[in-house]
Amino acid sequence: MGKIHVLDEHIANQIAAGEVVERPASVVKELVENAIDAGSTRIDVAVEEGGLASIRVTDNGSGIDPEDCETAFYRHATSKIVEGRDLFRITSLGFRGEALPSIAAVSKVRLITSSTGDGQGRKIEIEGGHLRVNEETAATRGTDFLVRELFYNTPARLKYMKTIQTELGHISDYMYRLALSRPDIAFTLRHNGNTLLQTLGNGDVLQVIAAVYGTQAAKAMVAVQAENMDYTLSGYVSRPDFTRANRNGMSLIVNGRYIRNYGLFQAILRGYHTLLPINRFPLAVLQLTMHPSLVDVNVHPSKLEVRFSKEPELYSFVEEEIRGAHQQEVLIPRPAKQQ
Ligand code: ADP
Ligand code: MG
Fold first, then answer.
1. Which residues cross the membrane (predicted)?
2. DSSP assignment, residue 232?
3. Where are the beta strands (DSSP E) in the chain?
4. What is the mean pLDDT of residues 244-270?
5. For residue 318, what are the contacts with CB-CB under 8 A and spacing of at least 6?
6. Whole-angstrom Cα distance, residue 215 to residue 198?
């Protein structure tokens, strides 16, 4: 008898959970991305105790067909790719089919979903990877996903959780970024009943900036709008007198995805030339659109890092357009911006 055997699905899920579900914010991310992939225009997130007690994500998306509800929790079960070559034309945020089984392996999950508009839906309850309930229920179209007692059966992982404030910080950072990159979706984030974020989903980035950074910030923004052969740039940067002590207020969205890129950060700062006080950074929310062949999003697994194929051209384009936006502002000061 050999010593090697294939692990059973339950253990495999618990191992995968170690990678997919690092902390409450990872659960929020996976559930919200599923809601976006389902075409939702409204996504409500409610967490208790930094997400350690519960995380609830409600959406108005496509819902899950009754016969798919159990399958959705199987490992590598996905509706987003069918065959190998789909991997090279992915337009959804998810495709690995790992999130639901991983989350369900380390928490108590209740899913209520309906893919029809007739008030009929399905309820699933899973505890630590074990299916407890799969039955018909009344439900409106969309999905209501509740995750309770995360890591209740993995005490070693639970021990590594930081304070409620820290865990909440990770969740709200993620939600702010997402709201800024998707002004077309109405988001709410609530913690222990208090509303931390509410966006309208009407496509107005300035409204989201006001919701995330406050109305003063929104009033201090200058519009940027430009395009050349390769790139379209649009969004807002703050006037040089509205700055912060760190770069966290600089949001870059490339082809709809929030990214981080040092070269672009520098290009934005150069665009301010000598206007910025030393060691101060602007607020910026900039959307860049380009042909997918000009950007490689797969450099880092979390997909925050990207690589551009024509870096110098892109950076000088951004720098010049930011500079131009500020010069515009000096030439035609807008009375509404005076505080
Ligand atoms: P992936 O997103 O990689 O496909 P997941 O484990 O996150 O894998 O989800 C499995 C499947 O469950 C998805 O492919 C999708 O069909 C379905 N699903 C999950 N969440 C939702 C949702 N909020 N609305 C509609 N379908 C969903
Ligand atoms: Mg997913």
1. none
2. E
3. 42-48, 54-59, 108-114, 120-127, 130-138, 142-148, 186-191, 194-198, 221-227, 231-238, 243-244, 250-254, 257-259, 281-282, 284-290, 295-296, 307-308
4. 93
5. 233, 264, 267, 268, 271, 286, 288
6. 13
CA distance 14 to 123: 23
pLDDT score recorded for residue 167: 96
Q: How far from chain centre, in Å, is Cα 36?
A: 9
Task: Tell me the pLDDT tens digit for each residue of 32-59.
Answer: 999 999 999 999 999 999 999 999 999 9
Number of the ligand closest to the Cα of 122: 1
Q: How far apart are the first and last CA of the chain?
A: 80
Handedness of CA 155, 159, 160, 162 (dihedral sign): positive
d(CA 89, ligand 2 centre) in Å: 16
What are residue 252's phi and psi, to 5 degrees? -115, 130
Query: From the CB of residue 333, how many other CB atoms can be counted at a distance below 10 Å?
Result: 11
Complex ipTM tops 0.95 = yes
- The strand pairing partners of 114, in sequence order, are 142
Give the CA-trace dihedral at 39, 304, 15, 67, to 10 degrees: 10
Contact yes or no for 211/201 (Cβ under 8 A): no
Tell if the pTM clears 0.80, that is, is over it: yes
Minimal CA–CA distance to 110: which of 123, 92, 120? Answer: 123
Q: How far, in Å, CA of 228 to CA of 211, rounded?
A: 31
Q: How far apart are CA 133 and CA 110, in angstroms?
A: 9
Residue from 20, 55, 100, 106 whose mutation best tests the ligand 1 pocket (most atoms within 8 A of CB): 100
Question: DSSP states of 236-268 as a string?
Answer: EEE-TTSEESSGGGEEEEETTEEEB-HHHHHHH
CB-based burial, 292-313: b 16+ in 10 Å, e otherwise: eebbebeeeeeeeebebeeeee
* Interval between CA 37 and ligand 1 midpoint (Å): 8
**Rounded distance between C-alpha atoms, residue 305 and residue 299, angstroms:** 6
* C-alpha 266 – ligand 2 centre gap (Å): 33
What is the DSSP pairing of strand 186-191 with strand 42-48?
parallel
